[in-house]
Amino acid sequence: MDADKVFKALGDPTRRKLLDLLCEQNGQTLGQLCENLEMARQSATQHLDLLEAANLVSTVKRGREKLHFINPVPLHDIYERWVRKFERQRLSLLHDLKQELEGEDR
Amino acid sequence: MDADKVFKALGDPTRRKLLDLLCEQNGQTLGQLCENLEMARQSATQHLDLLEAANLVSTVKRGREKLHFINPVPLHDIYERWVRKFERQRLSLLHDLKQELEGEDR
DNA sequence: TTGACATGCAGGTATTTACCTGCATATTAG
DNA sequence: CTAATATGCAGGTAAATACCTGCATGTCAA
């Protein structure tokens, strides 16, 4: 998993919208997805290319159409590496800050 | 929670390293954090400002020092909004793609 | 008080990014 | 075959980003 590609892919509202659109209906064509975006088709293609590079979307060609499918695996990897780690220490991390704000003896 | 700020903050290796450094030892000063980065202090400050804007890091001034603390809450919010949603549909999403790859009747 | 130390602030630049337009290619329908 | 349709490819531009240098400010210790 390339965390950099995944986070950068997710760091754009258009690409997050594309994921939401695919979540509503998986396997949509480029044309279908474009109907819901207010930009040129070519721009949407570039966004989808980034999502595909991050392995968040997989595509299949069917004739002259290109179908897009969500791949949830990278999101799960992000969870394992970047959420659970901090989640586990959540209480103690907040505790550190609270102590500092209260100005404990030092 | 501002998903855009959080994902953009996470979309840079230096900032993810900063989070890891703070996870190892919470409450570090700017100077301490800089010792582990190969860039000018001013550049590190800019990265920390973005982490703070995304609410991933909180700071407290102590004399002439500035202490940095991780805030795990935005990461948890990301999980709720962007991981669990797709996780729930994980199996069915992969099913869709498998069907397409196998070229079921259509 | 004064010098050392920790950080803040103000620009400047090279790279990346998010758009666009214009044209090419490939597939299907009639 | 031919026209319509779906997508691919090749640039071009304005804005955002990630660095930097230089200097200012604030705090502590001797």
TrEMBL record, chains A, B:
Q: Where is the HTH arsR-type domain?
A: 1-90
Q: One Pfam family, short name please?
A: HTH_20
- CDD domains this protein is in? HTH_ARSR
A molecular function (GO) term? DNA-binding transcription factor activity
Query: NCBIfam families under this entry?
Result: HTH_metalloreg
Report the protein name in the record: ArsR family transcriptional regulator
